[in-house]
Every structure is written in structure tokens, then in C-alpha cells.
Amino acid sequence: MSQNSLPGVIVDSGGPATNGLGRSGTPHGPARRFMHSFIFFFSYHLFLNRKSIRTTRAAGFRLRVHPTVFHPRIFLSSEYFAEFIDGLDLRGKNVADVGTGSGVLAFAAARAGAASVLAVDINPNAALCAQENAELNGFGDRVTAVGMDLLADVPPRPTFDVILSSPPKHAGEPKDLADRGWHAGDRHRLISDLFKQARERLKPEGRLYVMMASDSDLDLFSRLIDEAGFRARLAVERSFYIESMLIYELTVI
User: Fold this and answer.
1) What is the Cα–Cα distance from 5 to 62, expressed in whole angstroms?
2) What global pTM score does this model have?
3) CA–CA separation, 103 and 143 (whole Å)
4) Alpha carbon 142 to chain centroid distance?
5) Cβ neighbour number for residue 7 with a 10 Å cutoff
6) CATH code for the domain of 238
7) For residue range 107-142, what is the model confidence (pLDDT) as tens digits?
8) Angle formed by the axes of helices 124-136 and 104-111, to 10°?
9) Are 173 and 216 in contact (CB under 8 A)?
10) What is the reported pLDDT for 143?
């Protein structure tokens, strides 16, 4: 097992490669689609679209989670990704966290030694939330949160050693700002520029770590990754009740 292995996860699971990601997405059957819809309905109304700020702890951080911001304690993918980041050596690195939400991945990068972390999110509530939480957890001198669409407002030049992203995992048009943490548009169009933008802003030996879901359109993501000039390696697979979370390490070809 690698230094990034987590208990109970599959690392570099192998198997016949169907695309550059080594596997295709697994479409849900009727029962799983119903369960997915139920979980989204429950999550949207109770957590994503709530009207109050909630205080919680996740991945070892104290967090204030603003309305419309992805809740890292309820949706465990952020904590699992943070565990993975804990195993990276980011000492002295310049890092970006794309789609930061409450800031968990950015703070995990700072905890792993990053010299600076740019935490970005298209949701202005999330950017405000992440900056507030950076101060709350003692990372205000190294973590800067700003509102932007992916990395569009960062000049396209080699800036970052590492880019992290846990984008919305599911296709479908978001109904509002709160839903942007869950749905990424038809054929994931709202995040389709992530890989090209990351490639233009990574240093030559840089890494992009991105979390996807087993029921995402992995064939589509494989094509976007290939077109951007990356090589993909499955670093961690973590099973949930109805799907698996997949963390890929992308390196520049």
C-alpha cells in the first residue's frame, strides 16, 4: 500500500482498462436511482438549502458552514479526501483548491505543509465561508479564499505545484446556487474546463488530484483529461453505500 492508503479502501485496483481512467462509470439501476434521488432530496432541503449557519467539526477542523455551502460532516467525501491529503508532502508548495466549499481541502493542504493555498469557489457564500474558517483554524496567513468560476480568473501560467478538486459529482442542471455543490450540468458542462485550466496553471512537475464518483461519466472525464494533456492514476477508491469515490492523480504528459 502507498503512503496515501486509507483503511478499508482499494488502492490502484487495476482491472481491464476501458479508458485512460482504467474503468467506465457504473450507471445506476432503478433502485439506486431512487436512492440517489431520495438522498439528494433529503440533503438539499435539510442541508444545502438551509437558512442558518451551522458549526461543526470535520477532518480535525472547526467549521462554520454557511447556507448553500456543501456540508463536510454530512457529505463524507471531503473528510476522506482530507485524509488522503494528510499523506502528501506539501511542504513549501503552492496549492489551489478548486470548489473549496467550507475550505476543508485547503486546510488539509496547509496542515500538510503548503506554503500558500488559493481556495476558490463559484459560490460567493462558500468563498466567504472558507476565508472565515481559515481564520478560525489559524490558516489565515496561508489560505486565501476567493470567488471565481474554476480557475478562470488566475492567469494561465505555471503557478501551482498541486491543484486539488472535489467538484460536483452528478450530471444534471442545478436548480439554484445551493444545488451547484451537487449537480454539474448536463454532461458535467459546468466543470468541463477544469482539466484544461489546471494544466495551464500547473508547474511542469505539478499534480492535479481530483475526486470523482463511480457513477460519473468517466468516459467523458477520461477524454477531457487526455485532451488537456494529463496522464491519470487511480490513487484511492473509497466505497459508500450506493457508489464509490475515486481520487485520481493527474500528471502532465
Assistant:
1) 25
2) 0.83
3) 9
4) 20
5) 6
6) 3.40.50.150
7) 999 999 999 999 999 999 999 999 999 999 999 999
8) 40
9) no
10) 98
